[in-house]
Amino acid sequence: MKVSFVIRKFSLLITTSTKYSRSCSSSSSSQMKGLLKQYEKDHYNFKEDVYYKVSTGSLILDIHTGGGIMPGLHRFCGVNEGGKSSEALEVMKNALESVENCKGVYVKSEGRLSPEMEARSGIKFCKDPDDWELGSCFILESNVYETVFKIIKTLVTDNDEVIRYCFIIDSMDSLIPKCDIDKDLDEAPKVAGGALLASKIMQRISLDMNKGGHIMILISQVRADIQIDPYSKRPFKTTSASGGHALLHYANFIFEFEGRYKKDLFLEKPNMQYDPKKNKIIGHEVKVTIKKSPNEKTNAIVTYPVKYGRKGGTSIWRELEVKTLLFENGQLSKSGAWAETDPSVIEEAKSLGVECPAKFHGEQAILTFLEENPKFVKHWYSRFKDALS
């Protein structure tokens, strides 16, 4: 009897507890629904997430970023002529071509967007808002911190057309707080004024960018600082960029671009000495350290090739990237001065309507074949990207 009584009492206790739990759960759920409705303008819970990937233009960099750049804030920093602006424009071109309902905004705060850069990028630019159509980029010429970010904030929040924006700010170093504009040159600017503004601005737009499906690339120079390791007593280099710590916190990806050196240059005849007339420089290798990444690639060092003289957004030497991976993954194999093609590659090429040789004499012959067959390159670019990302 005692055992039966205890079991009944325990069962009653569990039933009561369950009903109380459901009651509390129901009450808190209703409460949250009411609160979300009450503060509807202050949150994004009623809006669907917008997520996509935009190619960086480089097969190697795409693989290391897990397929490309996603919506949100990204920081491209590095030395002068390191490739920051060119890579940012490459991302914008690909966003304008691949993202539905997309427009670009290039904030020209330095005045460095030359006609040559525009031609290389393959982007349709405009300065008249009436000419700003889908798939094109508006050039905003301003270096005033508050003005630039008020315009950006308004575009992404007052967005009845549901435009997906891709913003480039080139560069953060050139933006000036409004309070410093009219100061004389001998007057000191506000201490850390830019960094404080950047922190406040990032707080206000970071969620807008991520949730709304917009991309913003912030370009800045880096300053190198040589310090001494207190343990090994050896010097080591650290770098810092404008904008303060807020940009480090809010950025999804941070790419740091290094300078180019003699060893990074591509010559017409790779095995011969450089000659300005007989053996010209035809490109160089870009070196990027992924300083921050959401996909466990932080501190990875990536190199990708650029070929000079190309226009229309084709500066990144995709043919050379594809050739390298064809060798690394066994589709091509070296045999003395020759390269042999795997039979499966020849069959795949036929399905694309491309006649692929069974053998190539020298690597230049492979590059020539790839440059003459963009359909073949596009096919293997996608294959490698999907398999290795």
Question: Which descriptors would you attach to this protein?
Answer:
389 residues, alpha/beta, Rossmann fold, Rec A Protein, domain 2, 11-stranded mixed β-sheet, 3-stranded antiparallel β-sheet, 12 helices, globular
Structural description of this entry:
The chain has about 400 residues and is α/β, with parallel strands linked by helices. The protein has 12 helices and 14 strands. It has helices spanning about 1-40, 60-65, 85-100, 115-120, 145-155, 180, 195-210, 245-250, 320-330, 345-350, 365-370, 375-389, and strands spanning about 70-80, 100-110, 125, 135-140, 165-170, 215-230, 235-240, 255, 265, 280-290, 300-305, 330-335, 340, 360. Strands 1, 2, 3, 4, 5, 6, 7, 8, 9, 10 and 11 form an 11-stranded mixed beta sheet that branches. Strands 12-13-14 form a 3-stranded antiparallel beta sheet. α5 (about 145-155) runs parallel beside α7 and α9 packs across α12 (about 375-389). It starts with a helix and ends with a helix. The model has no long low-confidence stretch (mean pLDDT about 90).
